[in-house]
Amino acid sequence: QDPVANTYLTQSEVDAKLTNYVNTTNNQEINGTKTFNSNVNASGFAKTGKDDTSVLLAGGGDQLLSSFGGAQVEDITSLVVTLHSNITFNYLKLTRISTFYTLMMEIQPKTQINISTQTTICTVGSISNSITPPTPPNTTYPISFATKRKTLTCVYSYKDFQITTDTTEAWGINDDVGLQFSWML
Predict the structure, then answer these.
(1) DSSP-H helix ranges across the chain
(2) Which domain of life is it from (predicted)?
């Protein structure tokens, strides 16, 4: 008679022998080190206890994404002040990436602005924060409307961005304008 054929294991002995068994239907928690001697394919890895900026490193460990350096876009729209009360700002954003600044806006007048009228759209920065473009004090940027064939001239004067209607037709309430200015300090 075979001595092994009549051998029985208790449940605790079975559990002890299956401690390191991994199946594909149950979750497994690894509290120590696990070495894989071949490639591991997975739909994703999660490191709990961290926010979503934690990156798992191929050499082991993890690192916050912000520690890699690189550019960070900073919203400084609050530094755009003195918004003209007769202009609707459909979009207004001032951002900074290190020393690169960009001001984007889409504007249209609430009421018609007559010809040969210079209107200050907004002011960027103040005496205490020198973030304005380092261009000559009066730099002009011509803007043409494709539909009306009229020209508005945008002027940067010290900290002010101004629009002048310099054609024979007024700047009407349906004439919305998209402007973008970029500069480096």
Answers:
(1) 11-17
(2) Eukaryota
**Which domain does 85 fall in, by range?**
74-184
In a domain, 117, yes or no: yes
5: three-class secondary structure by DSSP: coil
69 within domain boundaries: no
Q: For 14, phi and psi rounded to 5 degrees?
A: -65, -45
Q: Give me the number of domains the chain comprises.
A: 1
Question: 124-145 pLDDT, tens per residue?
Answer: 876 666 676 666 656 666 655 5
Instruction: Please indicate, yes or no, whether the overall pTM of this predicted structure exceeds 0.85.
Output: no
Give the Cα separation of 11 and 122 in Å (integer): 79
Sequence-distant (≥ 6) Cβ neighbours of residue 63 within 8 angstroms: 54, 55, 57
Query: In DSSP terms, which residues pair with 118 in a beta bridge?
Result: 164
pLDDT digit string (tens) for 149-179?
Answer: 556 677 777 777 777 776 667 778 878 888 8
